[in-house]
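In response to the reviewer comment on reproducibility (Comment 2.3), we provide here a single inverse folding case reported in full, input and output, so that an independent group could reproduce the run without further information from us. The structure tokens appear first.
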């Protein structure tokens, strides 16, 4: 039982089945660099308040660095009886330094130690994810120059609705991912408070300096309540909830491009590097990467549900259930990271099939709403204009013509307010020029937004 941090109370060895059941080293080993970072800061603080000597601090920190290098090089042996990465590192430190290593855990518990390690991991992961979101936004903004003259049909209910500039489409995704980025920034702010010093749940009688530990680890504040610290996993739930929203946005984008990649749409070409083939149908090129981005969103959404369910009934303060929080967090983080990396690469390399898009651009009466608004400007009540244009569309369908191909006589038979200038707003290219409201998809407003996004990207560089 001497191998156990809690072994002094027990006289019977742990059942091997319990060893296997309770270990977490199989998944929390990735916290090693953060555990070492936290332990070095803790040792420095202990030295400064006189609980260990400066020489002991130096020995502890130097040995922790050596252990960290061995772990990074894959030269460190893990044993399930040591349960987790925290005990592995502490046991190895003690083996190498004796009683000096035994002093490291002074004034802390695994409860606040684990919380600190996970917050350090989360802070690091958030910074990486923010960079990846910005890379994806930059990929969309870079497309704006390439596709500046392209007009696309925009859809509601997956039915052709109104025309927009292609750039308007790209910036729509930038806006969604910007909200994702801002949520992560907010999450980082709430994550960035230091748990160390809460110990098991009630703090400690030792003269530790929590503010100093927080300063050494780059935390902006000290978490206020030791009971709350021991039980708090809000920061993990918030983080994975943010990732779930990112995954949903990625899934929606992937679904759209999967449709655009079909023969029926044929709006976009995706390089071979990001598609796969069929084992039986030699002609196939499948958008498997996009399909997996869409599919992997389920894992992230499930991780969110996992954490909410895990924590919903836990009393204060720490409960061993919380060991299970890391698996969904790690998986959600790794999944979204991989999806964002590939999404940016696909956005950068795909090409719009402009000739195909243009060949069908006038289908679907994309200028109908602009015609209705033309009538409103002529003094026709909106609902009357809506009904009038609906009847004109029905007439066009019967005669197999477009609105721009109707004679003025037929327009005026439907509404006497229509004049010769109606042809200036009909047809997709004319209709799109009519959009002038702030945030709309017309050329002028889109150009304004492109300029704003380019400036934003430049300022981040």
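Designed residues, in position order:
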């Amino acid at each position: 039982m001497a191998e156990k941090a809690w072994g002094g109370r027990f006289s019977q060895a742990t059942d091997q089945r319990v060893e296997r059941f309770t270990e977490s080293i199989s998944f929390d080993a990735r916290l090693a660099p953060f555990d070492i970072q936290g332990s070095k800061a803790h040792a420095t603080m202990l030295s400064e308040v006189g609980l260990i000597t400066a020489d002991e601090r130096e020995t502890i920190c130097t040995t922790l660095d050596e252990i960290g290098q061995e772990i990074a090089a894959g030269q460190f042996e893990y044993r399930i009886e040591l349960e987790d990465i925290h005990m592995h590192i502490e046991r190895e430190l003690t083996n190498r330094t004796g009683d000096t290593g035994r002093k490291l855990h002074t004034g802390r518990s695994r409860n606040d130690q684990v919380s600190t390690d996970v917050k350090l991991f989360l802070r690091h992961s958030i910074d990486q994810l923010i960079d990846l979101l910005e890379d994806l936004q930059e990929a969309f903004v870079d497309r704006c120059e390439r596709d500046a003259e392209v007009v696309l049909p925009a859809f509601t209910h997956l039915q052709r609705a109104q025309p927009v500039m292609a750039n308007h489409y790209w910036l729509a995704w930038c806006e969604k991912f910007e909200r994702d980025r801002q949520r992560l920034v907010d999450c980082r702010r709430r994550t960035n408070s230091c748990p160390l010093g809460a110990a098991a749940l009630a703090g400690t009688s030792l003269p530790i300096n929590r503010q100093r530990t927080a300063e050494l680890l780059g935390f902006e504040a000290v978490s206020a309540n030791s009971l709350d610290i021991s039980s708090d996993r809000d920061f993990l739930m918030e983080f994975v909830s943010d990732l779930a929203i990112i995954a949903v946005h990625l899934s929606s984008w992937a679904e759209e491009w999967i449709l655009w990649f079909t023969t029926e749409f044929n709006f976009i070409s995706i390089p071979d590097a990001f598609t796969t083939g069929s084992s039986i149908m030699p002609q196939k090129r499948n958008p498997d990467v996009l399909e997996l981005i869409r599919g992997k969103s389920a894992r992230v959404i499930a991780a969110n549900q996992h954490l909410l369910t895990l924590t919903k009934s836990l009393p204060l303060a720490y409960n061993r259930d919380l060991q299970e929080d890391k698996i969904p967090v790690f998986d959600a983080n790794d999944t979204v990271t991989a999806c964002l990396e590939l999404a940016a690469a696909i956005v950068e390399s795909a090409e719009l099939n402009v000739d195909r898009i243009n060949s069908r651009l006038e289908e679907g009466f994309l200028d109908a709403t602009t015609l209705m608004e033309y009538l409103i400007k002529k003094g026709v009540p909106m609902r009357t204009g809506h009904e009038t244009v609906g009847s004109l569309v029905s007439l066009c369908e019967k005669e197999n013509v477009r609105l721009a191909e109707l004679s003025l006589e037929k327009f005026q038979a439907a509404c006497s307010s229509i004049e010769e200038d109606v042809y200036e707003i009909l047809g997709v290219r004319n209709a799109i020029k009519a959009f002038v409201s702030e945030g709309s998809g017309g050329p002028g407003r889109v150009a304004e937004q492109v300029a704003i996004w380019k400036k934003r990207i430049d300022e981040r560089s």
